[in-house]
Design brief:
The complex is a heterodimer of chains A (about 375) and B (about 400).
Chain A (H helix, E strand, L loop, with lengths): L6 H17 L2 H9 L8 H9 L18 H14 L5 H15 L2 H12 L5 E4 L14 E5 L2 E11 L7 E7 L10 E6 L6 E5 L9 E10 L4 E2 L6 H34 L3 E2 L2 E2 L4 H31 L4 H25 L11 H13 L4 H11 L3
Parallel strand pairs in A: 1-4
Antiparallel strand pairs in A: 2-3, 3-7, 4-5, 5-8, 6-7, 9-10
Helix pairs in contact in A: 1-4, 4-7, 5-6, 5-7, 7-8, 7-9, 7-10, 8-9, 9-10, 9-11
Chain B lengths: L1 H17 L26 H13 L17 H14 L8 H13 L2 H12 L5 E4 L15 E5 L2 E12 L6 E7 L10 E7 L5 E6 L8 E12 L3 E2 L5 H17 L10 H9 L10 H29 L7 H24 L15 H9 L9 H12 L6
Parallel strand pairs in B: 1-4
Antiparallel strand pairs in B: 2-3, 3-7, 4-5, 5-8, 6-7
Helix pairs in contact in B: 1-3, 4-5, 4-6, 6-9, 7-9, 8-9, 9-10, 9-11
Chain lengths: ~375, ~400
């Protein structure tokens, strides 16, 4: 498959870019932050996303969705990254849909997927429990109780946790932290007794939450996939999510880079445009090259996910590792080359730096994924 | 695409039946690379058989037209062939500056007569070419070259000196930049000309490098007579041809670091460094460096694939080969720094049989030229800054 977007994918990009740059420029995020918006995103805009088929992008047509793939989801994420638009797209349309598609039975799929596609249901995936992303370290307990389970433990860094209508929770039903065996995913109603959700205001002004489960009763019907055998399902969903975050980071990096190059062509010091200085030219060129190489790696990973998600692990690790280092470099150079202006809140560049830090951490940073690649290659 | 699937099946079967097992092993020594030419010899029957079978199929240069001995494959088919060769670790049957550099320039700028004369001898490995570009006072500033070509009836008389001419002492013909109008601005008085290295007045002198090897030569021209019909493109417009060729040269050099076939670097390092009880490389810092390197190496391979696909889709930027050249060569230097660190004291041996005559340290030192030859890293970044990013100034 050629490593370029198809004509249809390019058209999708253009229509997403048109909508997002018009309705949700960086000023949109700034406004949500400054007004301390309770939702942290615009419900009106999410309705538009649903009408355009974006909320159900990955949902099969028989459930009312668009039936598209990870490359298309990446196209959307990239455009979201360009303006840092806060959107349920990642947690609901990518993670929630993928978890239900890959692990859900017919009843679960027909109960939730049409609602995701029409924009009426928001989802969140709860995995992490500690400062660093270590999915096999899950230790939130799922204790058998009657025909169902009781959930006991705490989740952190749950994207969209405080607005979700459906929680997908990774829990340990057997074995101990670190083991592959013994993980189970549950579909949980966030209004269940015993759940306490604390919205955590994060550096990037995007949604995240800490969620405490205090003996939360769930039925056997709420198990997503197989009991104790949820590790592969979880890993598959996480890889899809990693591909999406990597795409967001590509959009973010390219936007910062574009703004920075524009600035180099406008700003004058010592009687010259600062873009004439070779010290800056070479750094700009290095960053351009870095972004282009990462873009190729990310597209490769998305195509690999669409071909066979079970075999996409190495390509995803490369993409997420690269996207993390590239975005980090892009935002640092962006602030540095904008000089003092880059340090002001009034200027948008700082928003990109904050979001890049969160994306780097989300579902494993560059070190984590380089380590995963090394393990996979046997050293 | 059912046709492409069928092509893949047929190609796989043909390669399986025709690529000798010895030709599926990584190249370890310089002699394992077959360059062709008048004075060439094969180091093994397998090398000969593999070359001849691929040549007869047109697959020494799969994407050139069949009339010149190429395979006539379109971009998608050529990619399938590359993938299938990589899958079994098949060596290139023929390495050649004629294929990588001159051929693309001739296809674009050559006359029908020039194409018919030279391209079939390239695909058949009959003539080995070298590149006469750099001069003692024209390195990064290539266009300031001084080798003169003066008109004399139907001929030019060429005088001057080239340097860093790769394998000039083995080459049969040279493609050469010469100054045909000394009064014009430096880019406007250059011509691109072809001649036989056995012409009267041509001599070469190998240069001993820090690796202890001599892949480069000084090349001298003393009243060399060359017919004017050997100019490629228009007289005094040779810089256009030169630049176009450089794009192909840079794409070629950027691929030097591509090791998608073969063992991962971390496993090679484990041979000498050792592993701990969990099977992790027993040097945590080195392991981290290698992992980060392998991430970048894998990403570069994606970018190389994408560059070809973008060019095919008409979305490529002509200066992008400079970006790839920069990254590929810097990555290859990183690779060898890691290999030297992993090899420790063993990698310092220079002459023993045990070390294959210091193969690793010599290769390490050779890589230091990667970011100089074909345009330095600094020149590449300058090209990206100006031609792609459109930054202002000089």
């Amino acid at each position: 498959m050629p490593l370029v977007l198809t004509e249809e994918q390019s058209m999708l990009r253009d229509s997403a870019r048109g909508l997002i740059s018009d309705k949700a420029p960086v000023a949109h995020l700034r406004q949500l932050r400054d007004s301390r918006d309770a939702d942290g995103f615009s419900r009106a805009l999410w309705k538009t996303f649903a009408e355009m088929g974006f909320a159900g992008l990955l949902v099969p047509e028989k459930f009312g969705g668009s039936g598209l793939g990870n490359v298309e989801a990446g196209v959307l994420m990239e455009e979201i990254g360009r303006t840092l638009m806060p959107s349920p797209f990642f947690a609901t349309a990518v993670l929630g849909t993928s978890a239900l598609l890959r692990g859900g039975n017919a009843t679960q799929q027909s109960a939730y997927l049409p609602k995701i596609a029409d924009g009426s249901l928001l989802a969140a995936l709860a995995v992490d429990e500690h400062a660093k992303h270590r999915p096999l370290q899950v230790s939130l307990q799922a204790v058998r109780s009657g025909n169902g389970f009781r959930l006991i433990g705490t989740k952190t860094f749950v994207v969209d946790g405080h607005i979700a209508d459906l929680l997908i929770v990774a829990a340990r039903s057997a074995g101990s932290a670190g083991e592959r065996n013994g993980l189970t995913l549950f579909l949980v109603d966030p209004k269940s007794k015993g759940i306490a959700i604390e919205r955590t205001a994060m550096v990037d002004s995007h949604n995240a939450a800490r969620i405490t489960f205090d003996n939360v009763e769930v039925t056997a019907d709420s198990v997503l996939g197989e009991i104790d055998q949820g590790a592969d399902l979880l890993e598959g969903v996480l890889n899809i999510g990693r591909g999406a975050v990597a795409s967001e980071m590509i959009g973010l990096s390219e936007e910062v880079f574009g703004r920075t190059v524009t600035y180099l062509k406008e700003r004058k010091q010592f009687g010259k445009l600062i873009g004439e200085f070779q010290a800056l030219q070479h750094r700009a060129a290095q960053l351009y090259i870095d972004i282009e190489i990462t873009r190729a790696a990310v597209l490769k990973a998305l195509q690999a996910l669409d071909q066979d998600a079970g075999k996409a692990g190495a390509a995803v690790a490369v993409a997420k590792a690269r996207a993390g280092t590239t975005a980090t470099l892009a935002v640092q150079e962006g602030v540095q080359m904008h000089g003092g202006m880059g340090m002001t809140d009034q200027f948008d560049i700082g928003f990109f730096m904050k979001r890049a830090r969160v994306c780097q951490e989300l579902f494993g940073d560059s070190n984590y994924h380089a380590d995963q690649l090394a393990r996979g290659r046997g050293y | 695409m059912p046709d492409l699937d069928q092509f893949r099946r047929e190609t796989r079967a043909w390669l399986e039946a025709n690529c000798p097992p010895e030709m599926r092993k990584p190249v370890m020594r310089d002699e394992d690379v077959f360059w062709g030419g008048r004075n060439t010899t094969f180091v093994s029957e397998a090398q000969k058989v593999w070359f001849e079978r691929m040549r007869d199929k047109g697959w020494t240069v799969p994407d050139w037209p069949k009339q010149y001995g190429g395979g006539g494959l379109d971009g998608a088919e050529a990619k399938v062939l590359r993938e299938e060769m990589a899958a079994i670790g098949a060596r290139p049957p023929l390495s050649s500056f004629g294929i990588w550099m001159l051929g693309p320039a001739l296809l674009k700028y050559g006359t029908d007569a020039q194409k018919a004369e030279h391209l079939p001898k390239i695909t058949a490995g009959l003539i080995r070419w070298c590149q006469g570009y750099s001069e003692p006072n024209a390195g990064s500033d290539l266009a300031s070259l001084q080798t003169r070509a003066e008109s004399d009836g139907d001929d030019f008389i060429i005088n001057g000196q080239k340097i860093w001419t790769s394998y000039a002492n083995y080459a049969d013909w040279i493609f050469c930049l010469v100054r045909t109008d000394p009064t014009a601005k430096k880019h406007d008085g250059i011509s691109f000309i072809l001649f036989d290295m056995t012409s009267k007045g041509v001599s070469t002198k190998p240069i001993l490098l820090i690796s202890g090897k001599s892949p480069f030569c000084e090349t001298f021209f003393d009243n060399v007579r060359v017919p004017k019909s050997h100019v490629v493109g228009t007289v005094n417009r040779g810089w256009d041809v030169a630049k176009y060729l450089l794009q192909h040269e840079r794409a070629m050099i950027s691929g030097l670091g591509d090791r998608s076939v073969g063992r991962p670097l971390g496993q090679i390092a484990a041979d000498s460094v050792g592993s701990d009880a969990q099977g992790r490389l027993d040097d945590a810092m080195l392991r981290g460096q290698i992992a980060a390197f392998e991430v970048d190496e894998a990403a570069l391979a994606c970018a190389a694939e994408r560059a070809i696909d973008l060019a095919k889709a008409g979305q490529g930027h002509p200066a992008f080969s400079s970006a790839m050249k920069y990254y590929g060569t810097e990555l290859n230097k990183r690779r060898y720094e890691i290999l030297m660190s992993a090899g420790g004291a063993d990698a310092l041996e220079w002459e023993s049989e045990r070390s294959k005559q210091g193969a690793r340290p010599r290769a390490w030192l050779r890589t230091k030229a990667n970011s100089i030859e074909g345009g330095t890293s600094e020149v590449m970044l300058g090209i990206v800054a100006k031609r792609i990013l459109d930054l202002p100034g000089a």
